[in-house]
Amino acid sequence: MKQEWLLIVMLFEIILEVFMEELFIGFVNLGYKQIIMFLIGGILIYLAIKKDYEPMLLLPIGFGTILVNIPLSSVLQYEGAPGVLQILFDAGIKTELFPVLIFIGIGAMIDFTPLFVNPSMLFFGAAAQFGIFATIILVVVLGIDDLKIASAIGIIGAADGPTAIFVASKFAEKFLGPITVAAYSYMALVPMVQPPVIKALTTKKERLIRMDYKDVKISKTVKVLFPIFITIIAGIMAPISVPLVGLLMFGNLIRESGVLERLSKAAQNELSNIVTILLGVTIGATMTAEAFLQSTTLLILLAGLAAFVFDTAGGVLFVKLLNVFRKNKINPMVGAAGISAFPMSSRVIQKMATKEDPTNFILMQAVSANVAGQLGSIIAGGLILALVPLLLG
Amino acid sequence: MFDSLINSSNLTKALVLMGVGVAGVFSVLILFFILIKVLLKLFPEKGKL
Predict the structure, then answer these.
(1) Using a CB-CB distance cutoff of 8 angstroms, which residues of chain B are in contact with residue A225?
(2) What are phi and psi of A36, to 5 degrees?
(3) ipTM confidence score
(4) Which residues of A touch B6 (CB under 8 A)?
(5) Does A26 fall in a domain?
(6) pTM assigned to the model
(7) Staple partner for A366: which of A160, A164, A337, B4, CB 3.0–4.6 Å?
């Protein structure tokens, strides 16, 4: 009887030992770096929920960050085979499928009418891309000795998430996480980043400039032909930009054709939403402690801020330069709306104009510049993808 | 086209990238501007709002 009891106790001890080992195996492998990453994931989720900072992306990225940093987590790898997030990464990011699919949705959401009414605003969309290139120089000066990585960091200045992801996945895959987080965070922070820069570069008199707006009807033929011709022109000028521009314009053609209402709505809603969920959580999966907790991450975050400041300055200063030669002055604040953060930037500009003079409305001009910025950022991304390999030989 | 720059410093390459990049973006958007003007001229909507 005593021997039987001894056997039961021994058996119980073995079960307990195995169970405890399995139970605490995660704790044993938990380091301070993982805890920091949990906090970073938590901060991203907090910013998404409480502050409403780009919640569509920051919440999935934040949760993905937590998922991937759980010790021995099987989301990236399980018994030598790729885990679910690794499969999504290989299928959607490495192949550039997710950002490109997002572009179909964005294209279906964009209404180019304000740009047709004010086509000269296109130039502000070009000027505000200055930040991308200025940031590349800044990053090189600060010690990044790889032009591809510097360019991937500079593209944060495109103020366009999918373009940043597209370029970063080609040029700096290991920094995809921080680059994406910086791009989306600063897009959400446009109301805080742009006003001080604009105020520093303009006088009150300049901010009070009024601009005429004529609402002109645009024919359907123009709206249908525009995306087709843009694809051809951009494709010939920078063939590497075809996936970006082409699918953006495909989405827009679906919208403007008038015969694909269901597809247009699907692209704007179901397609965009599904890809956004997968894109966000997969980007989060790149934010492992080893990849994220580096001095380069801090540099990326600071350079991202600098990119938005340079973009804003580029747009404002370009308008000021034009005003030297123009009789009908343009409000320089409109130049700052030439970044791609749509519609956030144009709203910020109108808010600033209203603050200076409650009867001054420059929203439509700012929207035109903002839409132009969306085109400009994609073209800039395509040019960087084409030029950097040529420069590196 | 950039063969002579292959052995130059990254800063030089970044400066060239800026010059060509900004000029490139402006060139493409100028073409878009011309396209819009031509399309509006060829296919005007009759009434104004």
Answers:
(1) 39, 43
(2) -60, -40
(3) 0.91
(4) 391-393
(5) no
(6) 0.85
(7) A337
